[in-house]
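Notes continue from the previous slide.

Worked example: a multi-chain complex. Inputs as given:
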Amino acid sequence: MSAPLLSVRGLDKKFGGLAAVQQVDMDLHPGVLTALVGPNGAGKTTLFNLITGNIPADSGEVLLDGASIRGRSPHHIARLGVARSFQDLRLFARMTVRENVLAAIEHTAWLWQPGGRSARRAREAAVEQALERTGLTAQANARAMDLAYAERKFLSVARILATGSRIWLLDEPASGLDLHSRARFVSLVRQAAAEGVTICLIEHNLDIVTELADRIAFLDRGAKLAEGDPQDILRDPELIGIYFGERRT
Amino acid sequence: MTAYLLNLATLATIFGILAASLNLLIGYAGIFSVAHAVFFGLGAYAGAQVAMLLVPDVLLACLAGGAVAALLSLGLALPALRVRGEYFVAASLGLQMMAVTVFSEAHALTGGHGGLVGIPLPTLLGFDVSAQGVFLTVCLAVLALILLAIRMLMRGSFGRSLMAIRDSESAAEAFGKDVRQLKTLVVVLGCALAGVGGALFSFYMMFVNVESFTLEQSILIMAMVIIGGTATLAGPLVGVLLLLLLPAALSFLPFIPPTQIGAVQQFIYGLAMALLMIFRPAGIAGQSAGRR
Amino acid sequence: MLFLQLFISGLQTGAIYALTAAGFALIFGATRVFHVAHGATFALAGYAYLACTDAGLPWPAGALAALVLAVAFGLAMDAFIYRPIQRHEGSFFTVFVAAFGMSIVVQSVIELVFGRGFVTVSSALTMARQVAPGIYLADIFWVAAGVAIALFVLVTLFLERTRAGIGLRALSENPELLRAYGLSSRRLSAMAFGLGSALAVPGAILTTMTSGLQPAISHQVMLISLAAAVVGGIGSLRGAALAGLLLGVVENLVIGVLDTQWSAAAGFVVLFAFILFKPSGLFGQAVTR
């Protein structure tokens, strides 16, 4: 297997006295889709927040291409090619669908973007392509708040898609989708992985996990209990017991 | 009558600048400042001082007013970067109250309660622009320039970045937005434009004192933006016209004694603010809430 | 000696601020509504008391009228302004603007009815006597201190010992718990507004007798309550009360150092500093940006 694109080493985070994430190691490889699985409160979203710099880690390292990105601000890490989605989507509600995607790829915090007209055309093309791949072209001028539930979910993916990021961290992107939308979502993510994008996704639905994941990392109470092939993990009776709520003693 | 209308038009233009600049903060960036009159005042004092000490050139005074307001707007940017919501409103209220005291006590710069008297007649690049109609034209030109700039910026990436921060700060960061820099930039820009409005105001009144820069003034400007409609180009202007024409209209009603007009006006715009928030939170010119 | 005198008048002002701010904090803590019309409640209570006294009624009647009007206004704000807004959107700013609008309405009505000037009720309580060389004290100081302490003890007991009080404290944090207790969040929120508004009444009556009223007092009281609530830690009752006391003392002590004009600003310097350097306030939980 090739060198990991993103590595997490011995990551630790306590909230008050509670260990939200403890001593987690994880490697994400290009083109590989890793699913984070575990019961509620296992620390999956916290792990995302630690990687993207939204909350500071107590100790440990986050390496991108072998270089540490721990302690960098979220916008800096995003510009390095790490994109993420949120469980509650956090769309730019009062902006149109097209503006949502366009805003996601305009990084310069100045009155205008660099690169002039050609860069602008490239951005617009990236937006149109992302809208088309997520099936939102017809809704491009609707406001995000006026979209249907499934469309909102696809918009949150379109924002990520347009950025051309190398790493996608998706937080329950398929929850609540109907069967048809789910199939579209699966093929969308598969295609991205095939194009070499490194994907890590949090998902509760084990059907989707089996359908999509190349690897599974199993988290419980902040610690990584196991990592490996989906078949092996999902056949482990102890892990499945934890997942479905039989607590360890 | 013409003089009366010209007066109303000039004031409306200056308040148009104030409302449009506050809309940058409130409407586009979601920074709910209740201290806009402070920067209006800073611009007015700076413009008046330039006119009295150097030359009464409108352009120079506007630049000076904008620059001083921009510089001191860091007093607003600092809390805007640290806190949100209730806390920021409280901070801006605090700033407003402190500023009023400083304005009335810093006699050397502001003339204290008495204010600055005897601001010379305005010129523009050597030409006399003091005639009422001419000065109105100058103000209108400034307003038009500002509106044009705001329109261009807000339709471009800067506007999208601000609105993204307004709608979800964490998502904006996750997509590479430097929230601190963008917020600082919009606060400086919005306050600088208020300063420009202040400089024009000082020429027009030929006299400035702290009475024009109180919390009540900040609230009036805020009410203009909100009643007209936030995050639209026309909204704040609609609000300005409504709230400035209101006292004028009331003065034609025979059954309201002239001394009570102020209170009646306040009653109406207070009630309008409350009712709009209940029935049409996006304002008169704003888009209504979602269809769904 | 001057400082001791200023400190004493600071305590008196502070006791009034503390009660009013505690009411604001109680409402915010329970309902998460930033009730900026709290200053209007204060003004209405003060003017109601004034009107009754001017009409020749005895003081208990005036106090009762003030109490009824204040509580009625608080409940009306909850039922007719905040609830309808929260039903459709309820963003912080929408609520803030509506409340601000209503407080402007109240101020203008007061101005139309009572005029713009200062008005006071004279009372034997405000006659100052020399109690030590250079130290003057009026009986109203003891009234203010006694009322503030007694009410604060009562409210604390209520919040900690009674079912409804515990429900109020849980309202903002854990609505599910309430259902288990069999309490209605709607009734509790009304209770928070009623009780919080009632807490503004003693301060309003005392102010009527001491420094007097003017229509703009609703703004001033709103600013002080807000400042005290933030400095104390938003939602913390004892924090707000302590900060109210602190602001009252600071305002008065500043007079000993600078001019009287700076006294109002001093409180806001404290507020501004807290927001910049310790936004969680004296007793609040940490706030995330």
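Summary box: The first strand of chain B starts at residue 116 and ends at 117. The two ends of chain B are 49 Å apart (CA to CA).
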